[in-house]
Write a structure and sequence with these properties.
Layout (H helix, E strand, L loop, with lengths): L8 H7 L16 H13 L3 H13 L8 H12 L4 H13 L7 H12 L4 H13 L7 H12 L4 H13 L7 H13 L3 H11 L4 H22 L1
Helix pairs in contact: 2-3, 3-4, 4-5, 5-6, 6-7, 7-8, 8-9, 9-10, 9-11, 10-11, 10-12
Length: 230
């Protein structure tokens, strides 16, 4: 399956951003030490947003905080256990990369799945890729399709492109170059360069009638998305 995939699981997780910092626990403070103390207090009292804030600080070594992956894992875990998807995603990244913990793809998969089930498109894409590559879970093309589709339906361009790849190869679904081309078309609309490259590659396998059909399907999909948003 994997030589044609245009998505690198490792690259995506490594490049993926951690959750955005919340400003609630340090809001109004001009003294950074006092702000940090405020956030520590809130985190110790179980406030998940403050725990995520501290996890982010320790992960990246920001401000008064020296980088400490073990502390980042500690605080992300506190918030993840409260079912915060952003913390579950961040914790999954730490396990995937082996930062502050022993690298463990199975554990990473567990936390990514929890976040994905809450509807986070970027994590749904990662989960699809883990099923696709058999990373942290037994390889399963149907599950890869399932999670790519969930992310694709939220207009996640890399997931749309990977969905196209699986349709083109007939893995997890019946092979269908028209539908594959449709997904490459849709992903290309977001400016996703790799999707544009794949669209160009597969265009030569389609007749002019099939290309027209693919383009029409892509237009219909985009139109339906706009109606749903309205």
């Amino acid at each position: 399956m994997k030589n044609i995939l245009i998505f690198s699981l490792v690259g995506w997780v490594l490049l993926g951003c951690s959750s955005e910092e919340t400003l609630h626990c340090d809001y109004g403070y001009t003294n950074t030490k006092e702000a940090l103390a405020s956030c520590n207090k809130a985190a110790e009292q179980g406030e998940a947003l403050a725990q995520i804030y501290l996890g982010n600080k320790y992960q990246h070594g920001k401000g008064e905080v020296t980088r400490d992956f073990a502390q980042a894992v500690y605080w992300y875990k506190k918030a993840a256990d409260q079912d915060w998807a952003t913390a579950q995603y961040d914790l999954g990244q730490m396990y995937f990369r082996g930062e502050g913990v022993t690298q463990d793809y199975n554990e990473a998969f567990k936390w990514f799945k929890k976040a994905a089930e809450q509807g986070d498109a970027k994590v749904q894409h990662i989960l699809g890729a883990m099923y696709d590559h058999g990373k942290g879970v037994v390889e399963n093309d149907k599950q890869a399709i399932h999670w790519y589709r969930k992310a694709a339906e939220q207009n996640h361009a890399p997931a749309q492109s990977n969905l196209g790849v699986l349709y083109a190869k007939g893995e997890g679904v019946m092979q269908d170059f028209v539908v594959a081309h449709m997904w490459f078309n849709i992903a290309s609309l977001s400016g996703y360069k790799k999707a544009s490259e794949m669209r160009a590659l597969f265009t030569k396998y389609l007749t002019s009638t099939q290309r027209s059909e693919s383009e029409e399907l892509a237009k219909e999909w985009v139109a339906e998305q706009r109606v749903e948003k309205d």
